[in-house]
Amino acid sequence: MRTDESLGRWPRPADVGVPLAVAGVQLSGTWFLAEGGGEPLGGARWPLVAGSIVLAAAALVWRRVAPVPVLAAAISLSASAIVAAGTADTAVSGLADGVALYSVAVHRERRDAVLGCLAAYTVAFAVYLPYARGPGDLFSNEFLDGVLYLGIAAFGQLRRQREVARSGLRARLADIESESRAAAEAERERLAREVHDIAGHHLSAVAVHTGAAARRADSELVAQALAVAAETGREVLRSLSGLVDVVAPRAGHGGLKELLPPLCQGLNRLGIPVSLRVEGRARRLPAELTTTAYRIVQESLTNAMRYSAGAEVRVSVRYAPRAVRLTIENDAAATRAAVPALGGGRGIQGMRERAAGLGGVLTAGPTAAGGWSVAAHLPSGPRHRRGWPEILDGVAVAFCAFLPLLGFVPPDPLVTGRPGAELLLLGVALTLRAVPLWWRRHAPRAVLALIVSADAALAVAWGLWSRDLLGLLVLGSAAELVAVYSLACYRPDGARTWPAALAAPLPWGLGLGFLLVADHEVAADGPTPVAFAFGLVTAVVCTAPLTLAAWTLGVTTASRSRRWGESALDAVSARAGDAVQAERDRVAAGLNGTVLHHTVRLVTVAEAGLGGTDGDAHEAVARAAELARAALTEMRALLDAWERT
Fold it and tell me: What stretches of 368-494 adopt beta strand conformation (E)?
């Protein structure tokens, strides 16, 4: 499956930059290693090595056009360069073939990425095998090669997934006009159904009853008809006014914390007691989730207002780790009255469809106390399936756990002369300190705190009593860098993360500070606190640029990968929301100018007739019948106009 338009086309000028950089690094690095190691690549070896490097880099120009053939060429030519050099001490392995593997992972499916990773690793293993300086050197080199190639494949596949998601968002943005129209039409149909169900049944009953009473000279029947007309008119006014009031608040660009209180207060002003409770730490949610949650609460309140007028309604919003849970529950109405049908449960069905569209679940049904309850579970992101993100987490753990263990591996170990049991204990401790990185995406702050705390304790102990072990913390410094990067990239909304880049160097500062304190020569030259402060400040100042660079990279990655998608979703939601709100405003204006106006006059006439003489009552009941029919006529005209729009 192809994911971009560059596949199969001629390379672009931008495709030349990376190959030039790769060739420059490989040529200069290989020359430096050869000259510095005392074994210059004389005779025909250097032209062969340089030729293989240049050809491998040249093949990378076509890495977007034909990624699989380019990977095969890069693997073969990189291996040829090492064989021609006669040594593995070159700057060849993992560069050209790594870039080619990344291109395969970005532009091809998972199967091709995995096969390419296996091919690159197998060839690298076979080429290095003759030059290994013992089992320890072979194991450490091939372990790091495996982590490198697997990490490259994971990064490429994650990039591919982001590009697919962006393509979907671009297509959605292209259809924004039709989506806005569809949203407006759906809202218009919903409101039209509500108006028909609320006003149609009640006003039709008033027109029939008052018309029949007007044709008879029965004063008692006329009085009953007027009483029913007044009460029914008031019910229509309450329902339609409530409908207009409930739909009036604009969703805008706020969150649930800003949107729900005005919605609940609108019903409180109508005499319906509504309480709102928010649990958990409120956070920014995807625009679609905010809109869906708002609509579910809105629909539930509307139903509670119509079916259980006057009964208490309780709205609960709970922010779970990766979801939002809504509960809207109302008590049973104090008095039961006939309520018109609402279209066969389409309101509840519509809420279920909204929740299902986000991968959530909504349930609704009666409570044991005779009321009604609506509960929704809305995930705040797509349903997660384990895949490349977890592989990348595993790569981070393996890499950061293994690096400090290199200090024990021959032929050039940093730690020597210690018992096997002590080495085993040190290895376990150094490995466990990297395990929290598995949760770096979900709890980055806690992960950084654990790693910094563990390294600070080790730095103090080793600085005072085992100074030769401090080199292991230098090898293990990648864990702090990964933790700082993760906090900057996956930080909680609104959290300041830059202090983490200044706190992460603390273990190195403590280690150097206590190292100077334990040094007798340094202690003899001055006060101990001064030596400790000097070591602490020096180490922090020297290492802070590394942690700040990791933090900057994390912030940049987060900005590039999230903001575009969030802004696109917000644009879609805002555009659709504006269209929906415009429809509501139009419906509200139509109701206020027609149906509500006639219904108010109907109630006024009926109440006046009840307080007057028999002649006034007969005249009022006839007038009430006319007003009911006029309201019905205006309602049908509105519905017809909305249907033609």
Answer: 372-379
SS3 labels along 473-535:
HHHCCHHHHHHHHHHHHCCCCCCCCHHHHHHCCHHHHHHHHHHHHHCHHHHHHCCHHHHHHHH
Of 426, 408, 425, nearest to 417 by C-alpha is 408
Alpha-carbon dihedral angle through residues 148, 149, 153, 159, given to the nearest 10 degrees: 40
If DSSP states are collapsed to H, E and C, what string results for 619-635? HHHHHHHHHHHHHHHHH
For 33-75, the pLDDT digits (tens) are 776 655 667 667 888 999 999 999 999 999 988 999 999 999 9
First-to-last alpha carbon distance for the chain, in angstroms, is: 43
Contact 82, 96 (CB under 8 A): no
Angle at 522 between CA 520 and CA 523, to 5 degrees: 60
* DSSP string computed for 26-44: HHHHHHHHHHHTT---TTT
Q: Summarize pLDDT for 332-366 with one digit per residue, the tens.
A: 765 544 333 333 445 688 788 888 878 899 999 88
Helix (H, G, I), strand (E, B) or coil at 356: helix
Find, among 451, 456, 508, 515, the residue nearest to 483 by Cα.
451
d(C-alpha 467, C-alpha 41), whole Å? 40
Dist CA 471 CA 407 (whole Å): 8
Q: Tell me the C-alpha distance between 449 and 452, whole Å.
A: 5
pLDDT category at 636 given cuts 50, 70, 90 is: confident
Residue with tokens 């419906």: 587
Rg of the chain, C-alpha, whole Å: 37
Task: Name the token pair of 418.
Answer: 């210690």
Whether the model pTM is above 0.85: no
User: In this predicted model, what pLDDT tens digit does every residue of 535-586 receive, in sequence order?
Assistant: 888 888 889 999 999 999 988 887 766 555 555 555 555 555 566 666 666 7
| Cα–Cα distance measured from residue 633 to residue 468, given in angstroms and rounded to the nearest whole number | 94
Helix, strand or coil for residue 274? Answer: strand
The whole-number pLDDT of residue 577 equals 56
- C-alpha distances (whole Å) from 630 to each of 212, 622, 623, 644 are 17, 12, 10, 21
Per residue in 149-188, pLDDT (tens digit) is: 999 999 999 989 888 877 776 776 666 566 666 666 776 7
